[in-house]
């Protein structure tokens, strides 16, 4: 090989190395009527690396945003996208449990890994837009492409419920009882059983080809739930469950357009795990008062914990969320969540985790001040 060729390869390699390590710029594109304004954006240690025919973007950006609306902001979801229809090309960042007054600023970090086609010469690697902003009165701004309104509203209702619970303990029993409640929450976090759920292709994937059987759901009673599950089953083979289906009835006087059924599985030793939820269809559900409907998850799911299969012995379901036709949300109350079946498998809510972390880092006085800050 000639010296010129070697020099050319060396120059090309150096150029590629420099290119793959350059921090990809983010285009922040908030609409003119957006209730948030960008004060600053620090790119941090963002990287872009060419792999085959795609570019892998490791995005790490610290934003400072200002609330330009007349209402306090309770939650924000940002959509980060490279290309609309590229697999792995979209991600989101949601920050719940905010309390940002009009005119105040707050930090928001973007830490995502995305893919985009390898297209040299394009300056902007990803675009950041607002998918939704939730306000103190539960009003909402944004296109809601990710259904962030439903999720942020549910989280906000959970946060209010859990703060009321902690304040009631403080007012009725004092600081020591509140401390014990927080220690109990820390213990739940430490002991929470982990479960991995994998979507498998159609056709049996269980290695041991366990015999398939029909397993029916038992259901926990949620006293004030507007939706009641009446029957349900799934085909189970070893650690796999396929096509779970659950029939429900709308017991309320309001139309329902979405609901979720929490799913608990029990193994042969009697240990229970939260296996996620069976959601109603994202589109087209219209469950009138008194009407019955069925939700079917057309998938096969494999469950494991710490790389070991969970052999499904029994299944339990419970209503975990309901959205009415007007967009309002129902969630279970604290009394319903205290049932032994639920208390042992449910992780603390995002707000409980935030408050428990505050207690761990800054102590009980800081936590009490935080509880008083929210109305």
Task: Please give a quick description of this structure.
25% of the residues lie in helices and 39% in strands. The chain contains 7 helices and 20 strands. The chain has helices spanning 3-21, 148-173, 175-191, 334-337, 340-343, 350-362, 364-373; strands spanning 26-28, 36-42, 47-51, 54-67, 73-81, 90-95, 105-117, 126-135, 140-141, 196-200, 213-219, 227-237, 240-250, 256-266, 272-279, 292-296, 300-305, 308-309, 314-324, 329-330.
Considering the chains and any ligands shown, give keywords for the structure.
375 residues, alpha+beta, five-stranded mixed β-sheet, 7 helices
Q: Helical element count? A: 7
Provide the gyration radius in Å: 24 Å
The helix content, as a percent range, equals: 10-25%
Instruction: Return the average pLDDT rounded to an integer.
Output: 86
SS content category = alpha+beta
Walkthrough of the structure:
- This protein is α+β, with helices and mostly antiparallel strands and 375 residues long.
- It is 25% helix and 39% strand.
- The chain contains seven helices and 20 strands.
- The strands form three sheets. Strands 10, 11, 12, 13, 14, 15, 16, 17, 18, 19 and 20 form an eleven-stranded mixed sheet that branches.
- A hairpin with an 8-residue loop joins strand 5 (73-81) and strand 6 (90-95).
- Helix 3 (175-191) crosses helix 6 (350-362) and helix 6 (350-362) crosses helix 7.
- The longest helix has 26 residues, at 148-173.
- It is globular.
- It starts with a helix and ends with a helix.
- The relative contact order is 0.12.
């Amino acid at each position: 090989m000639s010296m010129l060729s070697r020099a050319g390869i060396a120059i090309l390699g150096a150029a590629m190395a420099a290119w793959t390590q350059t921090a990809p710029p983010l285009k922040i594109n908030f609409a003119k009527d957006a209730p948030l304004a960008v004060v600053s954006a620090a790119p941090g240690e963002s990287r872009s690396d060419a792999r085959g025919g795609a570019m892998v973007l490791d995005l790490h950006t610290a934003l400072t945003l200002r609330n330009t609306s007349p209402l306090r902001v309770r939650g924000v979801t940002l959509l980060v996208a490279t290309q609309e229809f590229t697999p792995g090309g979209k991600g989101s960042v949601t920050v719940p449990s905010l309390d940002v007054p009009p005119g105040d600023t707050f930090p928001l970090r973007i830490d995502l890994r995305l893919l985009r086609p390898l297209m040299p010469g394009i300056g902007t690697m990803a675009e950041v837009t607002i998918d939704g902003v939730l306000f103190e009165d539960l009003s909402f701004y944004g296109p809601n492409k990710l259904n962030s309104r439903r999720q942020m509203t549910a989280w906000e209702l959970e946060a209010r419920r859990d703060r009321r619970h902690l304040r009631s303990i403080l007012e009725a029993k004092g600081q020591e009882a509140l401390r014990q409640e927080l220690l109990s929450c820390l213990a739940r976090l430490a002991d929470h059983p982990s479960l991995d759920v994998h979507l498998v292709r159609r056709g049996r994937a269980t290695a041991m080809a366990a015999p398939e059987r029909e397993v029916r759901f038992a259901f926990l009673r949620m006293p004030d739930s507007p939706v009641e599950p009446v029957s349900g089953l799934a085909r189970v083979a070893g650690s796999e469950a396929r096509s779970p289906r659950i029939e429900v009835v709308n017991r309320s006087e309001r139309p329902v357009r979405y609901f979720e059924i929490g799913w608990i599985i029990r193994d042969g030793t009697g240990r229970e795990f939260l296996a996620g939820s069976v959601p109603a269809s994202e589109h087209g559900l219209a469950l009138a008062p008194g009407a019955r409907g069925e939700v079917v998850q057309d998938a096969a799911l494999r469950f494991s914990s710490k790389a070991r299969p969970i052999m499904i012995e029994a299944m339990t379901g419970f209503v975990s969320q309901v959205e009415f036709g007007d967009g309002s949300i129902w969630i279970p109350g604290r009394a319903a969540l205290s049932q032994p079946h639920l208390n042992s498998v449910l992780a603390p809510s995002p707000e409980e985790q935030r408050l428990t972390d505050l207690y761990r880092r800054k102590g009980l006085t800081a936590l009490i001040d935080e509880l008083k800050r929210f109305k």
